[in-house]
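> forwarded from #structure-qc
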């Protein structure tokens, strides 16, 4: 195999533009989600209402996922993504509007919550199209032989945007207004501006060909083909299942507002540090993976990474000291970063071009939606068990999942992507 070029994907102009668009979108979406979590907890002082944010997003995202994948595989990717971003701008403007003084002074708490949950619901509907569109578009921008490097930079950009987005959100609430409410309002204005910026930049990428040979294929047949492919491809199924369970039960970060306010007593700025810590860890780790190949013994590395993630979540749940909590979340991000790069590499190498939308949609059902379901699970178990106990429970379930997977699936444990890489290098 040829020597790895850590900057291979960055040598393509359109990939750099794509990365900038993705950064702005993820930064904006991360800011918005964190700000809304803070606002909802400020209004209710109840962790269950934070969990409901995740539930309201997962319902439409899960329900529309397969349909969205079918549409993506049938349509031109650049323009479809532009439509998604334009609709997202309407949602972000709506969040900005309902946190304005005019609304907060005249509407009841219940009415504001209904409005927030409604916008989150439509955001979930829209999100089901975002993942497949982005996953399919990046595969049309770079050659197959550098998919792993593109996956690394793509995931690193996602994590860096989350790091800066959630951190800036936590601090901006206190910086941008004379009180937290005005800080929330003007922070959401920044979100809207970033979304509009990403929309403008996207048109610097040329329209891409539609590689699906079955344009006009009946939807039921198309969806069946996509689901069947995922369940027959053991490497993809194993990676998605493992990540889904870990994200579902390891969603401790959804309770960061509760920890910051009631357990650690560090306020909105400490809240920003807590939610940023895992993303800092992920980002730094993914920068390292650009230099170190992860295709060899990928299955074993993924199992170790998810196990380390579970241990870090347990440590966070047991801690009542701020710096230890930050450190635990940082290491959860380190392990999650390795997991993410390996999973994205498996998906890119194992998925045919004409099925990327549908496979990405199944991925969003397994992993993407489990983030929101995990937020709901965390909120519900915190209500039933107590916040710290709920987090420890989630981390323990993650460890059990890893050990079970390693025991019952030796094929996945021995998964190696070296041959797949060599095949794609020969194709290009």
């Amino acid at each position: 195999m040829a020597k790895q070029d850590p900057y291979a994907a960055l040598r393509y102009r359109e990939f750099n533009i794509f990365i900038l668009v993705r950064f702005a979108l993820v930064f904006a979406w991360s800011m918005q989600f964190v700000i809304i979590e803070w606002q909802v907890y400020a209004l209710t002082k109840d962790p269950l209402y934070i969990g409901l944010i995740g539930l309201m997003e997962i319902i439409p995202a899960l329900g529309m996922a397969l349909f969205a994948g079918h549409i993506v595989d049938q349509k031109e990717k650049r323009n479809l993504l532009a439509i998604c971003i334009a609709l997202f701008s309407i949602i972000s403007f709506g969040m900005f509007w309902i946190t304005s003084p005019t609304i907060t002074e005249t509407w009841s708490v219940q009415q504001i919550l209904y409005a927030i949950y409604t916008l989150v619901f439509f955001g979930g509907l829209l999100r089901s199209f975002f993942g497949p569109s982005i996953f399919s578009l990046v595969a049309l921008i770079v050659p197959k032989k550098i998919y792993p490097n593109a996956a690394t930079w793509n995931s690193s950009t996602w994590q860096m945007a989350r790091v800066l987005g959630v951190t800036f959100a936590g601090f901006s609430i206190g910086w941008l207004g004379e009180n937290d409410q005005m800080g929330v309002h003007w922070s959401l204005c920044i979100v809207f501006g970033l979304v509009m910026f990403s929309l403008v930049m996207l048109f610097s990428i040329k329209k891409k060909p539609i590689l699906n040979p079955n344009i006009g294929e009946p939807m039921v047949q198309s969806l069946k083909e996509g689901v069947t492919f995922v369940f027959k491809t053991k490497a993809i199924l194993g990676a998605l299942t493992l990540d889904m369970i870990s994200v579902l039960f390891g969603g401790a970060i959804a309770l960061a507002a509760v920890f910051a306010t009631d357990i650690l007593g560090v306020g909105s700025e400490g809240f920003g540090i807590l939610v940023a810590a895992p993303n800092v860890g992920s980002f730094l780790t993914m920068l390292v993976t650009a230099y170190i190949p992860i295709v060899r013994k990928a299955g074993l590395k993924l199992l170790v990474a998810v196990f380390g993630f579970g241990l870090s979540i347990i440590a966070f749940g047991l801690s009542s000291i701020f710096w230890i909590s930050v450190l635990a979340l940082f290491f959860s991000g380190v392990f999650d970063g390795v997991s993410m790069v390996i999973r994205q590499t498996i998906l890119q190498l194992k998925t045919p071009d004409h099925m990327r939308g549908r496979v990405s949609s199944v991925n969003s059902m397994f992993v993407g939606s489990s983030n929101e379901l995990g937020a709901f699970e965390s909120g519900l178990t915190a209500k039933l068990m107590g916040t710290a106990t709920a987090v420890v429970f989630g981390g323990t379930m993650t460890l059990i999942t890893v050990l079970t997977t390693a025991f019952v699936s030796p094929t996945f444990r021995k998964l190696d992507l070296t041959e797949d890489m060599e095949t794609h290098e020969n194709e290009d």
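QC bot note: DSSP finds 17 helices and no strands in the chain. The CA atoms of residues 146 and 300 lie 22 Å apart.
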